[in-house]
Design brief:
about 400 residues; alpha+beta; 2 domains; two-stranded antiparallel ribbon; 16 helices; 13 strands; elongated
Length: about 400
């Protein structure tokens, strides 16, 4: 116990920041400040990336399902209303919505455009998605003045120069193929434009056309209870792993279960790679500052060669000397890491509660820069910082422990 107390006494007494001002103290302070800046940057940037990731997920799940069931073979599969109700009950799903999807050509007046038809029941589609809120012109309706109607994406409406009340004509690729082969021309399916939706989901969603299931079944030629996909909206995203496992057990022979992040695999991979790459690059800031810690300990050990030799002659082992300098490095690095985490938390708290950094709502779907931070993120950043500090302190600590006692005393 007395030996350990002496080691802690020397640790506190020889700490570079406690000595009179000099080159060693300047380098020690600069190293702590550099580690603090790097750590604060890591905390802030990681919280921003996670905030964007969560915001993108929230926006996607306002228009896309948590899980989409696709046919294992062919372009459609059958699922009865009783089966749909069973899955809704087993998965505690908020909405279970069978849909028919079909690529087709749309004409409005003299304008033509390709489009992707989404045929689904109006009420479940209204409850599951934010399309009704995103309808900026007209109404989200599938019947208008007693006629079948559709809601167009903004991009499709712009291509067709369509407005609510206009008439659309729809042709499937099969109808166009028959026309090309010289068969009798099919007049197509007539719809009215009920509304135009501006969903913040890019060009793909801008070319969508939403209408009732009956129209989709008429165009696709599917049998009764035949669907292209079945979309599932769960109560919370946390239920996704259990839902995927249950679906795999019960229906893997008839359909494939695709989670939301696989539906947008490229976007999800880009967000993940950007976060990992940014974390690796910003860790280099901490690494550069950590080299200053190594320089500080080495210079301190060179200056105290005589004291180290005297301690060795008094019975202190080389392991104790090495442990002494390792602890000094941990204290210097710990001061910088703690200050950096505190500064990063201040930024996170201020951005979350006061929105210090705002975005232009006319250009972005978010009005405030999103941030999100979890305790595990702080543990990861602190762990990486301490690991770098320990690696930097090992070399000067081993050098100090291996100094020849007789030579050091002779030189001094």
């Amino acid at each position: 116990m007395r030996h350990s107390s002496a080691l802690w006494f020397l640790l506190w007494r020889w700490l570079p920041v406690r000595r009179r001002w000099g080159v060693i103290q300047l380098i020690a302070v600069l190293s702590a400040v550099g580690i603090a800046l790097g750590t604060a940057t890591l905390v802030s940037v990681l919280s921003i990336f996670k905030g964007f990731h969560h915001a993108v997920q929230s926006v996607l799940l306002r228009y896309e399902p948590h899980v989409r069931l696709l046919p294992r073979t062919g372009s459609w599969f059958q699922m009865s209303p009783d089966t749909l109700e069973l899955y809704a009950r087993l998965l505690h799903a908020r909405v279970v919505m069978p849909t028919i999807t079909l690529r087709l050509v749309v004409r409005c007046g003299q304008a033509f455009s390709p489009a992707l038809l989404i045929a689904a029941p109006e009420e479940p589609l209204r409850r599951a998605t934010a399309l009704a809120e995103a309808t900026v012109i007209g109404d989200f309706l599938f019947r208008l003045d007693g006629m079948p109607a559709a809601v167009l994406g903004a991009g499709l409406a712009e291509r067709l120069r369509a407005l609510p009340g206009d008439t659309l004509w729809l042709w499937t690729p099969t109808m166009l193929e028959q026309l090309a082969l010289g068969f009798s021309f099919h007049p197509g399916v007539r719809l009215m434009v009920a509304g135009i939706a501006q969903a913040p989901m890019g060009e793909h969603h801008g070319l969508l056309l939403y209408t009732d299931t009956a129209i989709g079944r008429r165009l696709a030629g599917f049998p009764a209870q035949g669907w292209s996909t079945v979309d599932l909206w769960l109560s919370t995203a946390d239920q996704l792993p259990q839902a995927l496992q249950l679906l795999q057990q019960r229906g893997s022979q008839h359909f494939r279960s695709i989670p939301w992040y696989e539906l947008h695999q490229q976007l999800y991979d880009v967000l993940r790679l950007e976060r990992l790459g940014t974390f690796a690059v910003l860790s280099l800031i901490v690494l550069v500052a950590v080299f200053n810690v190594a320089a500080t300990l080495r210079m301190s050990a060179v200056r105290k060669r005589r004291e180290l030799a005297l301690l060795r002659t008094l019975g202190m082992s080389a392991t104790d000397i090495q442990r002494l300098y390792l602890r000094q490095g941990c204290i210097l690095g710990g001061m910088g890491i703690a200050a950096g985490i505190l500064a990063g938390m201040v930024f996170y708290w201020g951005q979350q509660h006061f929105g210090w950094i705002r975005l232009d709502p006319t250009r972005y779907i978010l009005a405030v820069l999103p941030v999100l931070l979890e305790p595990w993120d702080l543990v990861l950043i602190a762990g990486v910082g301490f690991a770098l500090v320990l690696l930097a302190a090992v070399v000067p600590a081993r050098w100090a422990a291996r100094q020849p006692i007789a030579e050091a005393l002779r030189e001094e």
